[in-house]
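wait is this the right file?? whatever heres the structure
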């Protein structure tokens, strides 16, 4: 976890977005792959929540965790899709690679 905390929010969100994308891609196709990616996404979100450097982003991170959990494990009351998750996280992934 300490290595995770050495990275900025762009890197963290880029990686979280990759795992969420994998989870959504495999949902309904390969349960074990989807669940593995979902668990990794939640673990990364939890690490980001515990990162003191992310204090200004805590509400956003917590909300992402809530909405992802709903969209993957529950009835998707927020109406998120693989496409909407990708659109949200792509700018972070691009910023992390600059």
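ok assuming it is, sequence goes like this
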């Amino acid at each position: 976890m300490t290595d995770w905390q050495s990275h900025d929010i762009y890197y963290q969100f880029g990686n979280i977005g990759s795992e969420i994308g994998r989870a959504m891609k495999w949902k309904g196709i390969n349960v074990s792959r989807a669940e593995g990616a979902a668990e990794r996404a939640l673990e990364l979100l939890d690490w980001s929540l515990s990162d003191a450097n992310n204090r200004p982003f805590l509400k956003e991170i917590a909300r992402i965790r809530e909405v992802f959990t709903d969209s993957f494990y529950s009835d998707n009351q927020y109406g998120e899709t693989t496409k909407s998750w990708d659109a949200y996280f792509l700018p972070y992934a691009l910023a992390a690679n600059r």
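The chain has one domain: 2-96. so i think its the right one actually
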